[in-house]
Structure formats: structure tokens, C-alpha cells
Amino acid sequence: MVDHGEAGPVRCNRCKAYMCPYMQFIEGGRRFQCGFCSCVTEVPPQYFQHLDHTGKRVDCYDRPELSLGTYEFLATVDYCKNNKVPEPPAFIFLIDVSYNAVKSGMVNIVCNELKSLLDLLPRENPEMDSVVRVGFVTYNKVLHFYNVKSTLAQPQMLVVSDVSDMFVPLLDGFLVNVNESRQVIESLLEQIPEMFADTRETETVFGPVIQAGLEALKAADCAGKLFVFHTSLPIAEAPGKLKNREDKKLIGTDKEKTQFQPQVGFYNNLAKECVAQGCCVDLFLFPNQYVDVATLGVVPVSTGGSVYKYTYFQAQTDQERFLKDLRRDVQKQVGFDAVMRVRTSTGIRATDFFGSFFMNNTTDVELAGLDCDKAITVEFKHDDKLSEETGALMQCAVLYTSCSGQRRLRVHNMAVNCCSQLADLYRNCETDTIINYFAKYAFRGVANNPTKAVRDTLVNQCAQILACYRKNCASPSSAGQLILPECMKLLPVYLNCVMKSDVLLPGADVSLDDRAYLRQLIGCMDVADTHVFFYPRLLPVMKLESGSLPVALRDSEERLSKGGIYLMETGLHLFLWVGASVQQELLLNIFGTPSFSQIDPNMISLPVLDNPFSQRLREIIDSFRAQRSRYMKLMVVKQEDRTELIFKHFLVEDKSASGGASYVDFLCHMHKEIRQLLS
């Protein structure tokens, strides 16, 4: 953290890049030349320092901004909205209390959990209390606001039934400090499940719910986050009302793309208002049928929020996954009201961005909320001369409000080498990163193009990359040979996985909501997450050693043996596949029973047994879960059991039920495409 006092960060006069290791000090340290645009700027008197005999400032290694790739500046009031210091942020919990929500147990679980969770709101100093304030709303087709002011003996409910013109019926007592209002809040969380226990109201609204949270943040003049717990398609009469439009007959036709587009324009406009206020929305969905994730997800995706989906939610089997997700979501470090800008040296420029955010112009990426579970993929275009001597520079600056209400600038700097030989380029390729980009590019494309056209474009782009290598870098050989660059040997495997994913090639059992959900999820994944999502990790767990993982196997049915047990991780699911003729001793060690037929396929966690094997296997599962931002539920799959179909879907090297090619077939297809391009 760098604090330059009232003067604020030192920047280039012309391109406004922030002080970083690429600035060259000249004239004895009185001026500096920008590494990005070469403009020369005066050094402010309070920042002046002498240079040593090599031309470096003598304080170079004492200053993070002159010696590190990443650092933060404390921002001055000029960097704040309306030039005033921000208020501390608020978290508002909005709970659906319609019939489905109460019956599934969701309302009860949420209210119970919030009692303890409110002590774990994000804070920067673990010794101090969090400054985040909280508020509570319940809703079905009307909204109930709660006054939880600390001076009240009991919480008060205020009902707003005119949902077409949303307003917050109270100012004082809606957003409160948890410690001051603890007793009133606990009393409220006890009462909510009781109040709605016998409800018969099945209809819900959704648009007004977000409007309510947004209006509350506006009234308090602060940024914040809405946690919305929602169950069904909002069909009640209200702004943002939706109808069921799922139509399996559209799959594979030119009209399929409309199913990925929002049904109404209302939510795009609402998202824009949310971003302007710094209101981030996280949506927890508990659907039993179609809820139109493509439309309900518009506001979360545009505000830097998340969508969590628990289809056919059942308290006893899904409670753990939901609560682990909720706890992480409430506790994690977050920033608000953020703007990101990427600057580059001459020769390249940022032209496209993928992720959960909003853009009003071509340069500013606006994020109402910012957290550690989202990545942004940036595409650069080579648009001017580059030189091998100077390379290329990038600076990513993010201006945001911390969860303690402090305005800051986080700066990332990166210098990359440039080469003039194609062979050098292919030698340094990052296949996993290319796949991350291709997947996001393709998944974004399905809202505007038929899925077949999107798949064809992917094959074509991949073929061009590989044909270009073959033509310009490979030693001459017969056309019958497939020659791939060392770094890209796996590009066809992974590309095939993207091509036959549920978004681009759905099986008969995949719902439109599942596809829309995955499409939104992949949009903000980092490289490690897309890697394991498209090509799951498959480990044989017959022999386990402490300290190291078994060597992973290829995702194909022919790698599984009847006498084996295998653990598969996809980043969203965990499977333990058990062969029909596994040794009794192994079954005893893991399941506590020697018989294959006695293993309960419905178990969601392995029994805690006192043997080294059981301990190590559970350790591995815990370590996998710790690496992912969403809790992975464990599914035990017995060979020949009906659940095996779900597991086989993730054996991505085999032919898929939806008609996706096996890896071998796809490789032949790729080879043909490359040959065609070369001839």
C-alpha cells in the first residue's frame, strides 16, 4: 500500500499511466519519460529523488511502485464518486418466502445460518469489527421490509404491495450495525420462518426485489451487495415479469440464440442503474422447474456478481453445498464501485473484454462488485510496430472501494517479450489460456449466432493456428502426417471438449437453464478453472501415499478397470467411481463394508474411518474443495448403476451421448481441415 498523501499517485501527463518500474527518470531525476507513450513529465517536488550512477533513483527499492509488479495506491478524494469519501458498504439479504421456498426448507436454513454468519462479514483487520451494515427484506408477490433499529424491542414489518412503483418505506432502522442491533436481528431471523410457515402464496416477483435493494443503497448513499434467495419464475404482475419460453424444438435451429438472450429489456436497464450505484447482486436460485436463468442472471453478471443454482433443492442432501457457498460468499474480501482500465505501450492495445462486468464505452470496465473468484480475460490487438529490444508493456489499474470503505487503486504491471520469428511464438504458447479465451469467445457468441456456426468457427480458428505452424515452422514432410507444435499438442483435445460442452452441444436431458447457468459461469472463470472444467481430473485411488497425488489418467472409459476406484473432479462436481470387483479390503477401508452391494449410492460424504487410507482419501477430497470457489458435492457412482450415465458425460475423450466426437475422431477431422487449408 502506497500513500502519497493529498497529492495522490504520480501519473504520466499524457496517457495517465501510473508510476511504475517502466518509467525512465532523466535530467538528474527532475523529469520522467513514460514507458507507455514516451511523453516526458515533470516530477512533483515532493516526489523528487537523486539518481545513482546507473540512472536509477536511489530510493528505487524502498518504493513499491518503482520495484514491484503489483501494489496499491491510497486514492485521494478526486478519485471518489462526486468527490466525496465513500460511506461504508452495506449487505442486504432478500429472501423469497413463497410456498416453494418455505416447503423446501430454504427459508429456515437461510435464517438459521444468518444468525452466526453476520459475525463473519468481511473486514480488513481481523481484530476489528466489520463496518459493513446489513438490512433484511422478505418477498413473494409483495415486499416486506424490516425495521431492526437497536432501540426497538421487536422488529417491525413494513409491507409494500404496489410493486410497480418501488420505494423503501423506512430510512432509519433498515441498514444497521450488526453488533448494535444483534437482539432485534436474531428475533427477526427466528420469526421469519414462523410467520410464513403456512403460506399458500406461490407467485413471486423479481425485478422489484432488486429495485428495492438498489433504492435502499441510494437512500443510504453507499455501495453494497444484494444477496437474493429466489425459487421460481417471476410470473406475478410486476416490472420484469417473465413467461416460460423454454422450447427444446429450437435446439440446433437459427432461433436457438434467442433462448440465451434476456426475455425483456427491463433487466439490462436495471443492471445499468445498479452499476451506477455500486450495487452488486448475488443470486442464489432454488428452482424446481424453468426459471429463465438467461434473464434472471443479467443483473448479477453485469454487476460483477455471481449466480448459484441448486436445482431440486433438498435440505438433507444439498444443505451442506449451499451453506458452504453462502459462507464463502458472505465472508470473502470484496471491493465495490470499481473501474478497471488497461493501458499498453505502442504496438498493442486492449480491444475486447470477457467476464462479469458492465461497459459504457470501449475502455472502462465497470464492476459494481469485485472479488477473488472472478477473472477478466482481455484480448489485445497487434496494431503497430513492435520491437524485440523494447518488448511490450501493459498496465492494468483498478480503482475501487475496499470493504472498509477506503478508496484505492490497485495496479498490475507486466512486460512481455516480442519476437519476429513464428517458431519462437509457437514455442511459447499457453494452450490452457488459449482455450479459456476460445471458450469465452464461443459461449458469448451463442447469443448472436447458431451453435453450429459457433462450433464451425472454433474448428476453423484452431485449424488456422495449426496450419500456419505446419506451413511456416515444421520441417517438410508428407502431407499425410499430422504435425503439431510441442506446446499445442493438446489444443485439439481441449478444443473438442469445448465443442461438445453442454452449452454448444446439449444432450436431451440438459435444460436451457443449465446451459445459461454454465455460460454465465465460464464467462468469469480463470485459466485453472476452465482447465479442470473442460478436461476433468481423474485419479486412481487404489494406492495412496501421503504428500503426493496419484498420477492422473486420461478421461476415457477404457482407462477404468473393474477392480479400481477413481476420483474425478470437474470444478463443480466430485465423483467417486467404484468398480464392481474391487477388493474387499479396499471397500472396508473406504466405506466400512466389505460388500459392493452394500455401498449406499446416495451417500454425500465418505464415512470417517480410523485408517490411513480413509484419512488420506478424505484429505485429498478436502484439498480439491479448498482450491475451488464453489463447494463440490460428492457423488458415489457404482459401476453399472444408473448414475454412471452422469459420470460418463465427463469422460470427455469418448464419444458423447449428444453426438460429440471422440478425441480420436476429432483429431482425424482436424487433420483433414488442416490439409484442406494447406492445399
TrEMBL record:
Gene3D superfamilies: beta-sandwich domain of Sec23/24 (2.60.40.1670), Sec23/Sec24 helical domain (1.20.120.730), Severin (3.40.20.10), von Willebrand factor, type A domain (3.40.50.410), Zn-finger domain of Sec23/24 (2.30.30.380). It is a peripheral membrane protein. InterPro entries: ADF-H/Gelsolin-like_dom_sf (IPR029006), Beta-sandwich_Sec23_24 (IPR012990), Gelsolin-like_dom (IPR007123), Gelsolin-like_dom_sf (IPR036180), Sec23/24_helical_dom (IPR006900), Sec23/24_helical_dom_sf (IPR036175), Sec23/24_trunk_dom (IPR006896), SEC23_SEC24_subfamily (IPR050550). It is found in: Cytoplasm, Cytosol; Cytoplasmic vesicle, COPII-coated vesicle membrane; Endoplasmic reticulum membrane. Residues 550-621 form the Gelsolin-like domain. Its main location: cytoplasm. Residues 86-330 form the Sec23/Sec24 trunk domain. Residues 335-418 form the Sec23/Sec24 beta-sandwich domain. Residues 9-47 form the Zinc finger Sec23/Sec24-type domain. The keyword Iron-sulfur does not apply. Pfam families: Gelsolin, Sec23_BS, Sec23_helical, Sec23_trunk, zf-Sec23_Sec24. Keywords: Cytoplasmic vesicle, Protein transport, Transport. Residues 431-530 form the Sec23/Sec24 helical domain. Coiled coil: none annotated. SUPFAM superfamilies: beta-sandwich domain of Sec23/24, C-terminal, gelsolin-like domain of Sec23/24, Helical domain of Sec23/24, vWA-like, Zn-finger domain of Sec23/24. It comes from the Eukaryota. Belongs to the SEC23/SEC24 family. SEC24 subfamily. PANTHER family: PROTEIN TRANSPORT PROTEIN SEC24C (PTHR13803:SF5), SEC24-RELATED PROTEIN (PTHR13803). This is Protein transport protein Sec24C. The gene is SEC24C.
